[in-house]
Amino acid sequence: HPFSLTPRLLMSIQRSPSDSEVEALDDATSQSLRHRLSQHWRTFRSLGQLPLVMLIYFPRAALSFFTIVVAQFLRNCARMLNTTSSYEKKTNLRILIITDYTPPQTHGIAIRFSHYITHMRQAGHEVQVYSTNLHRQRLTSFDHPNMPAIINPFNTSNCMAYNPGLRLAWALGAKQWDIVHLVYPSIIGPAIVPVCNWRRIPVYCSHHVDMEYYIEQYAASISWLGNLSYWLFCKLPAARHASVNAAPTLCFLDSHVPHKAPGWMRMR
């Protein structure tokens, strides 16, 4: 009779798992845990020196801000004592370019900015460049490849600045500029863009890479942290304090900088 199987079915359902089944379940759980830990460890190692940089980022940023404040204080003291001449407008411009991407790097951003700098200098403008050139073969009074930097863990042929450094901080606080151009992606925006806004120096932020896409491709397991860092160190300062934000396309600009942000402007 079919109902005669009910007690046996109930017994098979309610019986305790055997030791071998428990061991198999524990092995599967431990293997899954080890796989996850191994994946996170590989992701952490792939970040290179970036975790260490995050530990020293805020102390170094505080030192840079202190340098800027001291430079501004001394500049104002000199002005009160009438020992410095005020900056006068000239036919040429004093332009400060801050970028992680310059030759000998051979990608598109580096080549493009090399041509920009050459063209503007040929036009008679004073262009000073602070960059992360690892080899420092172009150290002149106008080229400063000495920003504190590490090897980019996602592109080992490039360097990425993690702090403006004391020289750039002094230049931002003590000198007068007609325009400051900050090249994104860069994580030093919070130490550059607000200072320019405070000093009422026009700051032009150009966005060149869709970092949200590459975060998902290179660091999918910690993409939430990458997106948060990108928003905090890149998008927020540019959206809040930049005079002009520019990007290759309007769609790219719309997705990175909201329309209502103070620095939002369409670049045709």
Structure description:
- This protein has nine helices and eight strands.
- The C terminus is likely disordered.
- The chain has 268 residues and is of the alpha/beta class.
- The termini are far apart.
- The longest helix has 31 residues.
- The chain has a six-stranded parallel sheet with strand order 3-2-1-6-7-8, with helices on both faces. Strands 4-5 form a two-stranded antiparallel sheet.
Write out key terms for the chains shown:
disordered C terminus; 268 residues; 12% strand; 9 helices; alpha/beta; six-stranded parallel β-sheet; single chain; two-stranded antiparallel sheet; 8 strands
Helix and strand topology:
Blueprint (H helix, E strand, L loop, with lengths): L5 H9 L4 H28 L3 H31 L13 E5 L9 H15 L3 E5 L12 E2 L4 E3 L7 E3 L3 H10 L4 E6 L4 H10 L4 E5 L3 H8 L4 H19 L2 E3 L3 H7 L12
Helix pairs in contact: 3-5, 6-8, 7-8
Provide mean pLDDT, rounded. 77
Largest sheet properties: 6 strands, parallel
Distance between the termini: 83 Å
Number of beta strands: 8
Beta content comes to: 5-15%
Radius of gyration: 27 Å
Q: What class would the helix/strand composition place it in?
A: alpha/beta
The total count of helices amounts to 9
* SSE order, one letter for each helix or strand: HHHEHEEEEHEHEHHEH
Shape estimate: elongated
Residue stretches low in confidence (pLDDT < 50, at least 5 long) are 263-268
* Strand line-up across the major sheet: 3-2-1-6-7-8
Helix content: 40-55%
